[in-house]
Amino acid sequence: MRISSSVPLCILGSFVCISSAFCADQPQWGRAWDRNQVSTETGLPDSFDPATGTNLRWKADLGTETYSTPVVAGGKVFIGTNNHRPRDPHHIGDRGVTMCFKESDGSLCWQLVSEKIGVKDVYLDWPRAGNSCPATVEGNRVYTLTSSNKVVCLDIDGLANGNDGPFKDEARFASPADKDPDPLCDLDADILWAFDIPSQAGTYPHDAAHASILIDGPFLYLNTSNGVDNTHRKIRKPDGPSLIVLDKVSGRLLARDNEGIGPRIFHSTWSSPGIGVIGDRRFVYFAGGDGVCYAFEPLKTPPVTGTVETLKCIWKFDPDPTGPKENVSQFLTNREVSPSNIKGMAVFNAGRMFVAVGGDIWWGKNQAWLKCFKAEGTGDITSSALVWSYDLNRHSCSTPAIIDGLVFAADAQGWLHCIDAATGKAVWTHDLGAEIWASPMVADGKVYLGTRRGELWVFAASREKKQLAAVDLDAPISATVIAANKTLFIATNKTLYAVGVGK
């Protein structure tokens, strides 16, 4: 056998606060305020062996396609997958599933099962893709999205402690519209409220939902997955929002962007928002489906019931200013000239933004970059804010990790890049030999990254290139590795592994 994210947080008050000792859980994908894929966990293994059980604490079966990064909170592990290895005989067929496992042993606590909506247009909710969104956990509430683009607030304990409200129709929610609902059991999720983004916010999703919800006090910020239809040439909802804000208690729509992003979306709205702080100024940043980065004033108080506020834009930065911005569909399948888009999340670090941007992996040009720019100023800062630009190989679906003056970034062609954060110069690179959709995660002096060939690679997080391991696993890896409570959580398409030293 070849031995081939994310600071834990305490979410307190009106903002994400960091305690002096740091929390041990990892309650959302990446650090909540800046989305950096870095963890303070220590004592983590370089590698593990699923065959012999070396460093393997437990493993749990998932579906057959898993694109969701796991999160850990309150003694539980949450991950989205599909239903092609069903756990409940009442729920058979193509469904979106979010599973909740016991952190200590990997036993299944409960699962959210949701219907698919892509009957007439499979691109609305791609077959077999399952629930692709990672959960965001705060206290006893779990926030996530179904593949059909419904935001749900769940009870962390499921139905085992009763069916809390106001939402009571979990049976109908889990069943196709043409099928009588099955009775509920303790294995089902307890939905507290649900918000249907397409019908209630006026969007047309593409390929399923792909958002990691950001909590800021009483507010939930998330991207809408608004995108093209099945022709890939038409935006059905050009006036639909790309970024929305919900009330975390009720699910009420509170605010949306109004930047006119819709007509410029080349494929879909992939990237999730984060929070930046410079001095006494806080801002919510967001990479739109038009390939442009935006910063907005955070909401301070909820708007009056029945009204939806417009988010106030502070600045915008175009990482690809020479790329086409109008009539973007005419550049479909053009591998030399096309608009850019952003699939991973932008990361805020030391007053700067780091974002991977480039031609769409399936439909656009081969050119791609990692851009670093100053997160300051007002209005269009494109001409003044760029610090450096680093060429990537084709596109990147990943979010970078920044630590100790180094940026670790991956591109879809299969390369891991270690870049000097100050200068944008390559420190070292490595060809992993397979497509990469996951993001590198740094913890305990190591960089962890999975490939679509099913290998988990581990490198030293240093200026000297040092490969520590390359572990062959059972299926492709699309999810980012996370670290919590002295444990690595690694998801392939089929299996969730919990890995720790000496287990």
Number of helices: 3
As a whole number of angstroms, the C-alpha radius of gyration is: 21 Å
- CATH architecture annotation of the domain at 408-503: Beta Barrel
Form type: globular
Main sheet properties: 5 strands, mixed
- Contiguous low-pLDDT stretches (5 residues minimum) are 1-23
Structural class: mainly beta
Name the average pLDDT.
92
What's the end-to-end separation, in Å? 19 Å
Helix percent band: under 10%
What does this molecule look like?
With 503 residues, the protein is mainly beta. It has helices at 170-173, 197-202, 382-385; strands at 10-12, 15-17, 56-61, 71-73, 76-82, 96-102, 108-114, 136-138, 141-145, 150-155, 191-196, 214-216, 219-223, 243-247, 253-256, 274-278, 281-287, 293-296, 309-310, 313-317, 340-341, 347-349, 352-359, 368-374, 379-380, 386-392, 401-403, 406-410, 415-420, 426-431, 441-443, 446-450, 455-460, 467-472, 482-484, 487-491, 495-499. The strands form nine sheets. Strands 12-13-14-15-19 form a five-stranded mixed β-sheet, with no helix packed on it. Strands 16-17-18-20-25 form a five-stranded mixed β-sheet. Strands 21, 22, 23, 24 and 26 form a five-stranded antiparallel β-sheet that branches. Strand 28 (406-410) and strand 29 (415-420) form a beta hairpin. The relative contact order is 0.15.
